[in-house]
Amino acid sequence: MKLIIIDDNHQFRSDLKFYLEDQLHMEVIGEASSGEEFLTMNTIHHADIILMDIVMQEINGIEATKKILRQLSHLKIIAITMHIEQIYHAELIKVGFKGCVYKTDIFENIENAINEVQKGHLYFPKKIILYKN
Known about the structure:
alpha/beta, Rossmann fold, 5-stranded parallel beta sheet, globular
């Protein structure tokens, strides 16, 4: 499994990369600290899954995802976030994210999220409502 991690926190990226490679035996083929940096990467089309932070300076994760999915609509992107608002998650679905994992639960849930999204399923935390009625 080939992954790209986009997050503006270097230590978080480093810890997540180590976990994915050392514990889950996945390959991190790229990292970016911002939406702008991600959009200029030449490895995007090689990724099986992209792990995208939502709140970043300049181009945030939602805007970066909108832009890249216009060009490469087949990409599977999982949001990595601290936000738990219900409407926020409905927006993630609308934008095209295939999943979401809270940063506070990342090491408990990332493997399941990646596996489900890779199979073509959506993966969102059970404690949220995906769509507002």
